[in-house]
Amino acid sequence: MVVKVIELVGSSKNNWTEAVDNAVHEAAKTIHYIVGVEVTNFTANINEGEIVEYRANVKLAFKVK
Q1: Which InterPro entries match (predicted)?
Q2: How many domains, in total, are found in the chain?
């Protein structure tokens, strides 16, 4: 088996978990055989002292057929 890994950034207005879920969900629309995800970094955009966007850098692994 051969696995390819790509890096993505997911975002959410609600939380970091949803940012990861959004990255995986969007990738799954065009990438098949996803086997794993590694979260490498969490960041956020802040406006007037409030978090307005959560971001998660992820590495997504999928089988190459």
Answers
A1: Dodecin, Dodecin-like, Dodecin-like_sf
A2: 1
CATH of the domain at 8: 3.30.1660.10
Q: How far apart are CA 55 and CA 23, in angstroms?
A: 10
DSSP designation for 31? -
Q: Give me 41's structure tokens.
A: 């970094």
The structure tokens listed for 51 are 């978090």
Kindly report, residue by residue over 7-36, the tens digit of the pLDDT.
999 999 999 999 999 999 999 999 999 999
Task: Judge residue 27's burial from the number of C-beta atoms within 10 Å of its C-beta, 0-12 exposed, 13-18 middle, 19 or more buried.
Answer: middle
48: containing domain: 2-64
